[in-house]
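Hi R.,

Here's the chain you asked about this morning:
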Amino acid sequence: MARRILRGVLAVFFLIAGANHFRAPAVYLGMMPSWLPWPEALNCISGIAEILGGIGLMWSATRRLAGWGLIALLLAVFPANMHVALQGYMPGFDFSPLTLWLRLPFQAVFIALVWWAALNREPRTS
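And here is the predicted structure, written out as tokens:
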């Protein structure tokens, strides 16, 4: 039951976050390190990946693929989160530099939650 609730919460989170890439692209573009090529395309790809991952979490047939995809995405966007912490500001928000550093470990928390909700095999009951 807890796993099902977590999947629902994560699905909604990733759907909203993915849609936000298209609603407020300037926030995400401002987070990207300058050494990344094609920032607009990367923003669209990551937004689509979040939306598809959120949808994929809801069905058992796609859950594992969605879980692996979301974990890969969370790892892939970590450099942007690190860039924001190093800059000391996040475009569109008034977070303190300390908050930007404190949010970095939450990437690992999200990865663990996705793993538990989508990839960890549920115990069989006989």
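One quick note: The CA atoms of residues 24 and 92 lie 9 Å apart.

Cheers,
M.
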